[in-house]
Amino acid sequence: MITNKTFEEIQIGDSASLDRTLTKRDVDMFAVISGDMNPTHLSDEYAQMLLERQKVSGHSMWGGALISSLLGNDLPGPGTVYKSQHLEFHGALELEDTVHVSIVVKEKHAGDKRVIFECRAVNQRNEEIITGTAEVLAPRKKATGQGVDPHDLTYHARHAFRDLIAKVQASDPIAVAVVHPCSKNALEGAIDAAQAEIIAPVLVGPRERIQRLADELEIDISPYELVDTRHSHASASEAVALCRGGRCEALMKGSLHTDEFMSAVVKKDTGLRTASRISHVFILDVPTYPRPLFLTDAGINIYPDLEAKIHIVNNAVGLAHALGIETPRVALLSAVETINPKIPSTLEAASLCKMADRGQIRGAILDGPLAFDNAISKEAAAIKGIQSEVAGQADILVVPDLEAGNMLAKQLTYLIDADAAGIVAGARVPIILTSRADSARARLTSCAVAAAVAEACRVGSSGINAEV
C-alpha cells in the first residue's frame, strides 16, 4: 500500500535511510540512462590512466539518486516535489561498496509547505561519500490505495544473490579447494569470496605461477593455504583428495578445462561420486523475472534419459531447498505443452509428473511438458488455457538436453544481462563449476551458493529424494 507523510505529519528530526550495494550493472545502467559515458566509470584501463585508480568507480550522482529515492518513496513519500538539492562529494563510490544513505528533517516552512532535509551517505567503512541538503514541497494529501508492484516493471531490482551472500556471511566460511587458480578471474573470484568471509580457500596449483599472478594483480595470498602441484591434472586430483578426505567442504574450478576438472571428480575409486547421478544447475537472477531461475542440466549430462532426469530434478530440488525455497515449482520444458510420442521430452515430462503424483519425487510441484513461454509467463499460459500451479511462475526449468540448456543459459546471460551462478550437485560436496570466461562476480555468487549448500548438508536438510 502507498504511504506518505503530509506536511502536518512531518516532525523535526524525522528520518529515513536505506542501504544499497553498488554493482557493475548499476554503473552500466546509470551510464545508459543518464548518457554519462565517462570511460573512468566503464573501463579499468581508463580509471588507471586518468584517475590512477585500480578499478572503475560509480557515478557520484548515482549516490544522489539514492537520496531522491528516499524522499520520493519513504519520507515524505509519494506526492513529494523537489525544489532544490545541494550536495558535496567527498569520496569515490567503489564497486561492491555498500552505501548507507540517510535523510533527517531539519526545517519546516508552513507558508509554502517546504521541508528541508539534511542528507548523508557513507560507505561500509563509515567514510563520508556525500553530504548536503534537499528542499522539497511535502505532500498536501494523504496517499491511499495500492502502489505499483515492482514485479510488474520490466526490470526488477535484483537482490537474490545479494541476500544470499548476506545470509552465508552470517555463518563460518567453508573450506574450499580451488583447483588451478592460474588466471585473473579464477584467482580474484576465490580471493573476493574469501575477503567477503564466504570461503576459506585452499589454493591448489603451481606455487610459483600462482604467486607470480598474485603479485601482478597486487593480491596478498599469504593468509591462504597453497598446495603446490606441477600441472592442472595434478591440481584436480589433489583438490578432489582434499574434499574426499574431509579437509574441504566444496570444490571450485579454476583455469582448467571442464573435462579435465570433472574427470577427477567422477573417478570411481578416488572421486566424489555418490549414489546420485551428478548434474549441473545454473542459478540465474534475471532482470525481467521476479524470482531466481534454476536451469538444469546445462553442463554435465548431454542427452539425459528418464532415469537421468529423475536425478537431475532431485538435485535441483535439493539445491532449491538449501537456498530457502521450501516447495519449488519445476517446469519440465519441451517445444510444446502437449504430449507427443514423436518428441521424447514430452513423454519423459509426463512420466516425471506422474512419479511426483505418486510420491517418487518429493519436495516440489512438477508440471510438464511446458514450452518455455508457458513456464515463465502467466499471460502465455492463460492464452493457451493452461491451468497449472507451475506455469508462469516456475522456479526450476528442466531442459530436454545439454545443448538446449547451455544455449538458454547463455542467451539469458548475454542478451538480457542475467547474473549467473553455477553449481554441480549430486557429488559428495558442492562443486563450483564456472566457465573460464566467467567474471570474478559470477565466481563469488557461485561460492555463496556452495556455502549455502554446505550449511544445509551440515544440518541434513538437503539431499536426494527420489526412489530410483
Attribute tags:
468 residues, alpha/beta, Thiol Ester Dehydrase, Chain A, Isopropylmalate Dehydrogenase, five-stranded antiparallel sheet, 14 helices, disordered C terminus
Give structural notes.
It is a single chain. The chain has 468 residues and is of the alpha/beta class. It has two domains: 133 residues, Thiol Ester Dehydrase, Chain A (Roll); 234 residues, Isopropylmalate Dehydrogenase (3-Layer(aba) Sandwich). Helix content is 35%, strand content 23%. The strands form three sheets. Strands 10-9-8-11-18-17-12-13-16-14-15 form an eleven-stranded mixed beta sheet, with helices on both faces. The radius of gyration is 25 Å and the shape is globular. The protein starts with 14 loop residues before the first strand and ends in a 9-residue tail after the last helix.
